[in-house]
Design a protein that fits this description.
The strands form three sheets. A five-stranded parallel β-sheet has the order 2-1-3-4-5, with helices on both faces. By secondary structure, it is of the alpha/beta class. The chain is globular and about 55 Å long. A hairpin with a 2-residue loop joins strand 6 and strand 7. Helix 1 packs across helix 5. The chain has eight helices and twelve strands. The longest helix has 16 residues. It has two domains: 117 residues, Rossmann fold, CATH 3.40.50; 97 residues, Arc Repressor Mutant, subunit A (Orthogonal Bundle), CATH 1.10.10.10.
């Protein structure tokens, strides 16, 4: 079944451009000229990814991202004419998976869409299970699921990637810059605060699940996994 992607942008020209390139790759596209109609549709018929503009009349893209994240970990790419660091960081902190500034290359956007889906749904033989375990955290890449202290726990795409990195490399210290390069998967220019926010969210979920695994801060450098 084709993956469904929502495009949310008040500019018809931009929606048509993105639609043309993504449909050529086999994706099913539904487009919206405002955030509210996209949110209503998403609640009725969830999609596999959203591509959202920030500046729109009424509810803006950041607020839409925030509302979506209240109930879903669906991948979100923010596309915006505002190439300001504060917008990029805020978008990532609200749970978006990527951020691209206008004007942009449609081919680059297609590559980013494909890369996100590849990370979320890696191609593996159906009979093979790829399970990683550290402390009481079990990551099943085949099922794309995480169990913490015996219970299934929901994580966003970026949270999943970062936690998987720590689980598969116990005790290894990573700088914030290394984590940015590893998790975001492209040259990121800007503040490394999104890493701190990501770690904070993972810690909260581990603590809620009474996990023995910890993500320890290495002051002035980065983070490592620890636990008993």
């Amino acid at each position: 079944m084709n993956r469904i992607i929502y495009i949310v942008d008040d500019e018809k020209r931009i929606r048509d451009l993105i639609r043309a390139y993504l449909e050529k790759e086999g994706y099913e596209i539904r487009d919206f000229n405002n955030a509210q109609s996209a949110l209503i549709s998403f609640k009725r018929n969830p999609c596999d990814m959203l591509i959202i503009d920030i500046m729109m009349p009424g509810t803006n893209g950041l607020e839409l991202c925030k509302q979506i994240r209240k109930s879903s970990n669906v991948p979100i790419i923010i596309v915006s004419a505002r190439d300001e660091e504060v917008d990029r960081i805020l978008g990532l902190e609200l749970g978006s998976d990527d951020y691209i500034s206008k004007p942009f290359s449609p081919r680059e956007l297609v590559v980013r869409v494909k890369n996100i889906f590849k990370r979320l749904y890696p191609a593996k033989p159906e009979h093979t299970e790829n399970i990683s375990l550290y402390c009481d955290v079990e990551i099943n890449d085949s099922a794309r699921s995480i169990m913490v202290n015996g219970n299934t726990t929901e994580f966003t795409g970026k949270e999943y990637a970062l936690l998987s990195l720590f689980v598969n490399n116990p005790g290894r210290a990573y700088s914030r810059e290394q984590l940015i390069n590893s998790i975001w998967g492209y040259d990121y220019i800007g503040d490394v605060r999104p890493v701190d926010d990501l770690v904070k969210r993972i810690r909260k979920k581990l603590n809620t699940a009474d996990s023995s695994m910890e993500i320890t801060t290495i002051w002035g450098f980065g983070y490592k996994s620890s636990g008993g």
